[in-house]
Amino acid sequence: MTKQSLQVVGIALSAILMVGGSLTAQQNENTERIAVQSLKDQLDSGETMILIDVREDYELEEDGAIEGAIHIPMGELEQRMNDIPKDIRLVFY
C-alpha cells in the first residue's frame, strides 16, 4: 500500500462494509462499520473485496485514492448499484 493510499485510509474515519445488498435501512443486517486499521490490515493481507470510493471528484483530487478502488460519487451510487457485483464483500468509503 502506498503512502498516499495510507493517507486516504487515514482520512476516512470509518468505512461501511457490505456483504451483498444495497445501502438501504432494510438491509442493515448485512452492513457493518469497519475500523480504518482493520480495513488496512485486510487490504494488506490481500483479502478479497471491492472498494468503492463515494467521495466527490474534488475530494478524490485533493486526497488521492486507494489503489484499485472504484470511484462512484455518492450522488450516482443508487442508480449505479445494478453495476456492482453483489456476491463479494463491498467496502464503501
Give a concise summary:
This protein is of the alpha/beta class and 93 residues long. The protein has 4 helices and 5 strands. The relative contact order is 0.26.
Output the keywords:
93 residues; alpha/beta; Oxidized Rhodanese, domain 1; five-stranded mixed beta sheet; 4 helices; globular
Describe this structure in words.
By secondary structure, this protein is α/β, with parallel strands linked by helices. The chain has one domain (3-92): 3-Layer(aba) Sandwich (Oxidized Rhodanese, domain 1). Helices cover 34% and strands 23% of the residues. Strands 2-1-5-3-4 form a 5-stranded mixed β-sheet. α3 links the parallel β3 and β4 (70-71). The longest helix is centred in the N-terminal third of the chain and has 9 residues, at 3-11. Mean pLDDT is 76; it is low at 1-14 and 18-26.
Largest sheet: 5 strands, mixed
Alpha-beta classification: alpha/beta
Beta-strand content: 15-25%
Give the CATH level 1 class.
Alpha Beta
Mean pLDDT: 76
What ranges have pLDDT less than 50 throughout 5 or more consecutive residues? Answer: 1-14, 18-26
How many β strands by DSSP?
5
What's the helix count?
4
N- to C-terminal distance: 17 Å
Largest sheet, order of strands side by side?
Answer: 2-1-5-3-4
Tally of domains? 1
Q: What fold name stands as the CATH topology?
A: Oxidized Rhodanese, domain 1
> Could you spell the SSE succession in H and E letters?
HEEHEHEHE
User: Looking at the structure, what is the overall shape?
Assistant: globular
- The rounded Rg comes to 13 Å
Q: Estimate percent helicity.
A: 25-40%
Second-tier CATH architecture: 3-Layer(aba) Sandwich
